[in-house]
């Protein structure tokens, strides 16, 4: 296999793994399966740079996660459907977080870190960090039209897909995960299993 084919194959596996991870923590009451709700880009789109704050008030950006695949979830504690996704995202970070993957839950709450910190404590969030964008710069730069919105960002900082609106959250269920390039259903061998307790 040539180097270019290996790189493409690695990218496809990365995309499938992230989609499978989202599917593993999400359920849906809607008629459409989750895999059909995720919008995959034909060509990765560079994400505009923007700054946000961490729970300690330090300036951060997605560039801090360069080299990792990132699941960026834009949400607010007041958006009940968006907030209900937090425990599943916490499980996802616990299961997959590390040098290659990170969940970035970016809250647009205007009440500050204490609002998010209290909410996380109330629902038992242990692994997610607190990130805030009270000025909602991210929502403008990323063309977010509603909460929650989840972006799948590759290691080079490019958006490869997004999920707009609630996926519904609950126990892990099976979903049809499609290969990003062909649209054909992925085989079980191509979709990594993520089990959350």
Report on this model:
This protein has helices spanning 3-24, 34-37, 80-83, 86-96, 113-123, 137-141; strands at residues 38-46, 51-54, 59-61, 69-75, 101-107, 131-132, 149-153, 158-164. It is α+β, with helices and mostly antiparallel strands and 197 residues long. It has an eight-stranded mixed beta sheet with strand order 1-8-7-4-5-6-2-3. Strand 7 (149-153) and strand 8 (158-164) form a beta hairpin.
Give a brief description.
The protein has helices at about 5-25, 35, 80-85, 85-95, 115-125, 135-140; strands spanning about 40-45, 50-55, 60, 70-75, 100-105, 130, 150-155, 160-165.
What's the arrangement of secondary structure elements?
Elements: H1 3-24, H2 34-37, E1 38-46, E2 51-54, E3 59-61, E4 69-75, H3 80-83, H4 86-96, E5 101-107, H5 113-123, E6 131-132, H6 137-141, E7 149-153, E8 158-164
Parallel strand pairs: 4-5, 5-6
Antiparallel strand pairs: 1-8, 2-3, 2-6, 4-7, 7-8
Main sheet? 8 strands, mixed
Overall number of strands? 8
Strand content: 15-25%
Radius of gyration: 16 Å
Helix-strand category: alpha+beta
Helix count equals 6
Order of strands, main sheet, comes to 1-8-7-4-5-6-2-3
**Overall mean confidence score, pLDDT:** 76
Distinctive features:
alpha+beta; about 20% strand; about 200 residues; single chain
